[in-house]
Design a protein that fits this description.
NCX_ion-bd_dom_sf; antiport; A middle domain of Talin 1; CaH_exchang; two-stranded antiparallel sheet; transmembrane helix; 2 strands; transmembrane; 15 helices; globular
Length: 356
């Protein structure tokens, strides 16, 4: 399906030149164009990950899967759409651990009655998400209580929190990939049963990766420019568009990779992609965007998210910790995660625009 969907890629580019006033049409075309590009990016990353273990493979999938999210966010940041950036960050975190992981558990559970995974690795990543959520809660509390009296402090607090989160993420990579990598190894039997030989050469995978990333960057610029007018025409809030539509588009690569891994009974890789992507967004992408906002855009971005967005992350992290804590998964757990995501979607759909 990824092959024929590539026909959508040139459409938003052409529309931008021949019909720039058709914002809704451009937005829809750009949305369709990003899906196959993200899918090819995910496929190329999966090919590279096949040459690594579950831990490194999951990191590669998460990193390049989040490339779409990061590119879209930088485009929005450059356009001064801080609310859209914040909403898409939260949407990506929530979407990865509810939608992507839920879909993977459902798909894997329908093919395999019960699947096993490394509970220690899952709990470690869930703990990191809890830590990141604490940082968001404190930033939101500062914004509500202290910032009205000392507004200049919020930006400094956000900057320092961003540095701390980046440092912790770097230390986690050191812990999981170097000093304690044995604790994050998957089940060797499951890995060998499910793993297939790479179909692509390394050079082909790198070439596809580079081309997909460049095209995503181009289409993302077009997509971001059409977000606000399209949301207005569709009667949707920027918050809903950011948390769900933009985030789902940004997570397209993780979707395909995590579900594919789960159906091959490689749940360690699937969880590493899904939860690992959320960890990376919270501890790497968001802090990087805060730092980048000092160089691009009209004003620096802070980490003071609205209470509703912070609550969404808190609830998502809570149920993910419950579902992923025992080292086993089945289709019902996938349904539970998807149900929470659907409920959150309904809540945001009926929520008018508020500052993120």
């Amino acid at each position: 399906m990824l092959y024929w969907m590539l026909v959508f890629v040139p459409i938003p580019i052409l529309l931008k030149f021949i019909a720039p006033e058709q914002d809704l049409l451009i937005f829809l075309a750009a949305s369709l164009a990003i899906v196959p590009l993200a899918g090819w990016l995910g496929r190329a990353t999966e090919q590279l990950a096949e040459r690594s273990g579950e831990g490194v493979g999951g990191l590669l999938n998460a990193t390049f899967g989040n490339a779409t999210e990061l590119i879209i966010a930088i485009s929005a940041l450059r356009a001064g759409l801080h609310d859209v950036v914040k909403a898409s960050l939260i949407g990506s975190i929530v979407g990865n651990i509810l939608l992507v992981l839920g879909a993977a558990m459902l798909a894997g559970g329908l093919r395999h009655k019960e699947q096993q995974f490394n509970a220690l690795a899952a709990r470690s990543q869930a703990t990191l998400l809890t830590m990141a959520t604490i940082a968001l809660v404190l930033a939101a509390a500062y914004n509500a209580v202290v910032a009205p009296r000392a507004p200049e402090g919020l930006q400094r607090l956000s900057l320092y929190i961003a540095v701390v989160l980046l440092l912790v993420y770097g230390l986690f990579l050191l812990y999981s990939l170097v000093t304690h990598k044995n604790l994050f190894a998957g089940d060797p039997k499951v890995e060998s049963d499910g793993q297939q030989s790479p179909l692509w050469s390394k050079s082909k995978a790198l070439l596809v990766l580079a081309v997909a990333t460049l095209l995503i960057a181009w289409v993302s610029e077009i997509l971001v420019a059409a977000i606000e007018p399209s949301a207005h025409q569709l009667g949707l809030s920027n918050l809903f568009v950011g948390v769900f539509i933009v985030a789902i588009l940004g997570n397209a690569a993780e979707h395909s990779s995590a579900i594919s891994a789960a159906m091959k009974n490689r749940m360690d890789l699937s969880l590493s992609i899904a939860i690992g992507s959320s960890v990376q967004v919270a501890l790497f992408v968001a802090p990087v965007l805060v730092l980048a906002s000092y160089a691009i855009g009209s004003a620096p971005m802070d980490l003071a998210f609205s209470g509703g967005l912070v609550l969404s992350v808190l609830l998502a992290v809570l149920i993910t910790g419950q579902v992923a804590g025992d080292g086993r998964s089945d289709w019902l757990k996938g349904v539970q995660l998807l149900a929470v995501y659907l409920i959150l979607g309904l809540a945001y759909f009926f929520t008018p625009d508020v500052a993120a």
